[in-house]
Amino acid sequence: MGLNVFKLCSGLKFLGYLMILLVAAIIVVSYYVVIVLTWGPQLSLGGFRSFLSFTIILLFHILLVLLTWSYMMVVSQDPGSVPENWKPVASEENLESGGSDHIVPDTSASSTPLDVPETRQAQASGYCRYCRNGKPPRCHHCSVCQRCVLKMDHHCVWVVNCVGAHNYKFFLLFLLYTFLETTMDTIVLLPNFMKFFKDAKDHSNSPSDLALTFLTFVLNLAFALSLLCFIIIHASLLSSNTTSVEVYEKKGGVRWKYDLGRKKNFEQVFGTTKALWLFPLLAKEDREKLDGLNFPTSQS
Prior knowledge:
Blueprint: H1 12-39, H2 47-76, H3 92-97, H4 120-124, E1 127-128, E2 133-134, E3 140-142, E4 147-149, E5 154-156, E6 161-163, H5 168-194, H6 196-202, H7 207-239, H8 262-270, H9 284-289
Antiparallel strand pairs: 1-2, 3-4, 5-6
Helix pairs in contact: 1-2, 1-7, 2-5, 5-7
C-alpha cells in the first residue's frame, strides 16, 4: 500500500499549536528582558535617560498591543470558505471566450478517488474533487485544513490557520508589527549584548539574566531578519495582486489579469478607509466587497 503524504498534512495542526506557545514564550521572555530587566529600572534615573526609557517602554507596549491584536485576528478569522453547492454564474464574457474555468466535472462513481492529489486540470475546471464542490476563481484546496480556501495564499503553521481572502490583511499587519517589535528589541538590547562577555567575565550580573539577555537578543535579531524577507516578498505580491500560490500560475510577459494597479490592489486587501489601514479591522463596506467569490480583472 502506497503512503499518501497528503493525509499526513493534518499533523501540521498539532505543530501549529506548539508554535502559538512558542510565540507566547518569546513575547514573555522579551518583555521581561526589555522592560523589567533593562529599561524599566532606568525610569527613576531622571533626565534624558529617564525620557528615553519611557519612550522605549511606551513604543514597546504600543507595538505589542498591535502585534497581539493582529495575531489573534489572523488566528481566529476564517480565511474564507466556499458556500455549500456553490456554482458560478455563467457570464456572457465567459461564454464568448469559451473558457473552461467554470465547468463542473462529473461526480459519478467513475471519478478519481479523493485521496489522489489535485491535478492542474482539476484546478482549472473550477471544481474540487476533495470537497466535491465548485471552486471560485483564485480558490485552492488546503491539505492541512482539508477544505477549499477563498483566495488562498498559504497555510501558516505559526497561526494554525490558512491565510486567505478574509484574513490576509491581518496576516500582513502581524508580519509588519512583529518585524517592528523585534527590530526595536534588537536595537535597544544591542548595548547589553555588547557588554555580555565583559559582564560574564566580571560576574557583575546574574548568570540567568545574562543568558536571557543574550538569548533574547539573538532570537529577536533572527526573527527581524527573517521577517524582513517575508515582508519584501508579500509587499511584492500585494502590489501585483498575487498570492503565493498564484506566482506559479502567472505567465511571463503577460500582465496578471487581477492586477488593477498598485492603489486598487492595496485597497482590495486593506480597504478604502484610510483610518483603518494600520489596524486589524475592516469597514463594513469593505467587508461586503471582500466576499472572496468575485474579483475584478484588468479586462473588465
